Amino acid sequence: MMLFTGNEILEDRRENADVCVIGSGAGGAVAAAELSEGGLDVIILEEGGYYTSKDFNSNPSEMLFKLYRDGGASFILGSPGIAFSEGRCVGGSTVVNGALCWRLPDKVLKNWNWEHGLKNLTPSELNPYFEKVEKSINVAPQKPESIAKGDYMFKEAAESLGYKVVNQNRNQKNCVGLNQCILGCPRDRKQSTLITYIPRALERGARLFADCRAIKIMKSNGVFTVKANVLERETRKPRRKLTVTSKLLVLACGAIQTPVLLIGSRIGNSSGQVGRNFYCHPNVKTLAFFDKDIYYWKGAHQAFKIVDFIDAGLIIATGGVHPAIIATSLPYLGRKHLEIMEQYNRMIGAGALVEDSTSGRVFRAPGGTPLMFYNINKIGFERMRLGVALLSEIMFAAGARKVLLPFLYLDEISSPDEIKKIYNPSIRPRQTESLTVHAMGTCRMGMDPARSVVNQWGESHDMKGLFITDASVIPTPIGVNPMLTIMALASRSSQYILDNKRTLNLL
Amino acid sequence: MKLRLSSYTQSILRALVSTLVPRHESFPPVDEDAIAYLEKSMKYLPFYLRVSMILGLYFLQFSPLILGFYFKPFTKMTPQQKERYVAAWATSRFSPRRDIIRGIRALCMIGAYSNPDILSHIGYTIDEHIQSRT
Lengths: 507, 134
What we know:
Chain A is of the alpha/beta class. Chain A is globular. The two termini of chain A are about 25 Å apart. Chain B has seven helices and no strands. Chains A and B meet through helix 2, helix 8 and helix 9 of A and helix 2, helix 3, helix 4, helix 5 and helix 7 of B.
């Protein structure tokens, strides 16, 4: 197995391959595996470290630094400021996400069709790719015994109010509900790319360089050159240089890093669209408190979802996470903070994913640091209010005695009669606590080179042989968890590359 | 920008952390866990967040002299004064003040709630849960 970590690369190094894939998450791993299996010589560069389930544990103060960018403390500037987390390890965010698998809604594809000219991206065109990916990562509903009591309470309460609740499909195999998804599954039940696509790529001879951060890409005489810093595994300091030359380049660094790399390399941006059209599905969450122990963390993450409000731009679900993560969002100090946390076993955390109705922008600051800006608009904020109101309604129906809200000056309500306070016009977006784990857009796909960065196959309009297979190609908000969409689009791009080896100079 | 905080900056941070972290007789103080996590986070945060955090700490330290009518820096306040002052920042209508407390509090709480004693105090028995399910 050709896998190298930063500490194993002891001198500056040059490598050559047919294809260099930058990133090993949902988009990069799929491309690397399928291109390797198609007979191409592939190199994968991954900025994060290589960690397996033997390294995973339930201590967030250790795992956040190993598996997340910025230790999980990234931030999107704007109104409201949005806490943002993404994976940075071999396997990318698929190692630390909630394993929620949604196909792209048909209405979104129709939108892509008429707004961006992507006429070939139809449900019948994409379904085979979704099926292939779903089989590879074992997408399935949870077994009933792995689901937490809190999730069942949420389901019953929502159904009693007449809402339609369905099982979440998750990429898992025999998940027993350890609820360690966001810190890495310690039993390899979550089928992340770390244990699915990456091993497939390595088996077919792909070479994986972990702890290697790509800093510049160039193309001359039909050959791509990627310059990367080899980072020391613990300190993340650059120690050596790695230079990779390849005939074809696949960028899959995610919707934040990919535009930064393109802007820094001064390529692929004749449209001026790189970094623009940044979508992030801002989330709001509530915490409901009950008079009895619920242990909502003893079960699989987000086993059910309410689907009635998808057309209104909302998905609603519960999700148990480590107390340290809950603690970060409580608006209290010292003793009062502890009094809330002492009720950890009697609480249910639930959240609403809000489909974007506006977009932000990613800039490259000096030194290559991304700066993300996003201001929610009126429609988005009304969706947030609606999400919080629905969550509160459901939790009171489930028997909650109070619900903590994400608003600075309306931090809790104690009865359903108080839900109307959520619509008080004095509550402003800037005073709202929001978070997200979905970054999309920034290198959007489209048929018009003046309005988009890549074509329908993910190939740059500006530079032949430069493909993008991550969430940055998603041209509009999709309103659902994007992992499966990223993987299906990456699979489609890979198939295109394999079908066009000759024209892409890969033969 | 140095990755290690100066001893003066650390003293401000310690004073702030002392008002943020939970305390209870059933578990030992978790201030050191919180500070260790904050210091480690500084190495991983983007440059602009590191700078904002340090500038924010100095703003917190000296603004009581001008804005708070306490006529002494934050580190010289009594514990009750510190608590009132930080609470005012946390609910301020001026969002940069809120964001400083929000950011530091979030990092501080990850450090504090990674401590096994405090997790045991709130009844989070994850190891037992993992054992029982596998």
